[in-house]
Design brief:
The chain is 30% helix and 27% strand. It is α/β, with parallel strands linked by helices. It folds into 2 domains: 176 residues, Medium-chain alcohol dehydrogenases, catalytic domain (Quinone Oxidoreductase, Chain A, domain 1, Alpha-Beta Complex), CATH 3.90.180; 134 residues, NAD(P)-binding Rossmann-like Domain (Rossmann fold), CATH 3.40.50.720. Strands 3, 4, 5, 8, 9, 16 and 17 form a 7-stranded mixed sheet that branches. It has a 6-stranded parallel sheet with strand order 12-11-10-13-14-15, sandwiched between helices. Helix 9 links the parallel strand 14 and strand 15. Helix 4 packs across helix 5 and helix 4 packs across helix 10. The relative contact order is 0.16. Bound molecules: zinc ion (2 copies). One zinc ion binds next to helix 2.
């Protein structure tokens, strides 16, 4: 079997290695497609070397087919098409005991803290699996993980049908949030500085704005001076936070999606004055994955426009380069095509 290893200092090496049969409670998958995201790129850049143990097999967005099952696995049989929820929680911490295992205090993120999907054969605990509906192809199903992020974000935002939402940042997650919010009946505007990305989002039929073109005036005009009911901060920038806060209507909700690894200034006076709410939204719960697969099957997610590039597992490093170049939206690695 082939596996792609991150070896530090930006290097990816694809090697032919010996596989192993699934242990009790494990399911063996033939990996079909793996999506590469911004987090993977951060890892490759060495930003997360303190957390990732080398050599590391990355990949937390995937789809695949069951090929074998270990002892104590009755729920799955070879041929089942599945996606993996890449979260492994402790079950005993205060978050887990409250039913919030997705934000477990000792969360192990599969594909970052432990080996991920960038290999042709992958053994995973049976509890991580979610079934792919029969109306959905494996290529599109590989978008389940980032789509589940968007489903979770929209759910946390409490956006209701007919409400207006501003999405600050039009990368893959921003575009997915905009699509999920639209499917929920929201009226959506995406703010994105990159003209190529704006063009792609326009093509899909979503409304976009260049934040350099007086975003405040555009929002004012669009909402007749009221402001938006919900804003999603997906940019990770201080300017993005300011735009997301300033655009909100009275009692508006700001859903914080981006990872702000350093403290970012927030104008708390605006929270006081308009009685705003700030909610964090991190990863997803099991139900978000099921809803993501349902939305992907329903055609509500523009998968064809989102998946801009597909490379083989042998060329895995090319997937990272394409993403880094900034032209790609979602790059998939075809793990079944290589061996
Ligand atoms: Zn990701
Ligand atoms: Zn826990």
């Amino acid at each position: 079997m082939l596996a792609a290893y991150y070896e530090g200092q930006g290097r990816i090496a694809v090697r032919d290695v010996e596989g192993r049969p699934p242990a009790p409670g494990e399911v063996q998958l033939k990996v079909a497609f793996v999506g590469i995201c911004g987090t993977d790129l951060h890892i490759l850049d060495g930003d997360m070397d303190a957390r990732v143990s080398l050599p590391a097999i990355l990949g937390h967005e995937m789809s695949g087919t069951v090929t074998a099952v270990g002892d104590d696995v009755d729920e799955w049989v070879p041929g089942d098409e599945v996606v993996v929820v890449p979260l492994d929680w402790c079950g005993t911490c205060p978050a887990c005991l409250r039913g919030l295992s997705h934000i477990c205090y000792r969360l192990n993120f599969i594909g970052i803290d432990s080996p991920g999907a960038l290999q042709s054969t992958w053994n995973v605990p049976k509890r991580t699996l979610v079934r792919v509906p029969s109306n959905l192809g494996l290529k599109e199903a590989a978008l389940a993980e980032p789509t589940a992020v968007a489903v979770h974000d929209v759910r946390r935002s409490e956006l209701r049908s007919g409400q207006k939402a501003l999405v600050v940042g039009g990368g893959p997650i921003g575009l997915l949030i905009a699509s999920v919010a639209t499917a929920a009946g929201g009226d959506v505007l995406v703010s994105e500085p990159n003209s190529q990305r704006r063009q792609l989002i326009d093509q899909i039929g979503l409304r976009t704005v260049d934040p350099a073109d007086n975003l405040a005036a555009v929002v004012d005009d669009w909402t007749q001076g009221a402001g938006v009911d919900v804003s999603f901060e997906v940019s990770g920038s201080a300017g993005g936070v300011e735009a997301a806060v300033t655009s909100l209507a009275a009692r508006g909700r700001l859903a914080l999606v981006a990872i702000h690894s350093r403290p970012t200034p927030v104008d708390l006076f605006k929270f006081f004055w308009r009685e705003l709410t700030l909610v964090g939204a991190r990863v997803y719960e099991q139900g978000d994955f099921e809803e993501a697969l349902r939305l992907l099957g329903s055609g509500a997610i523009p998968t064809k426009d989102l998946i801009t590039d597909v490379v083989t597992l042998s060329d895995a490093s090319d997937a990272f380069e394409r993403l880094r170049a900034g032209h790609a939206m979602k790059v998939l690695v075809d793990c079944g095509d290589s061996k």
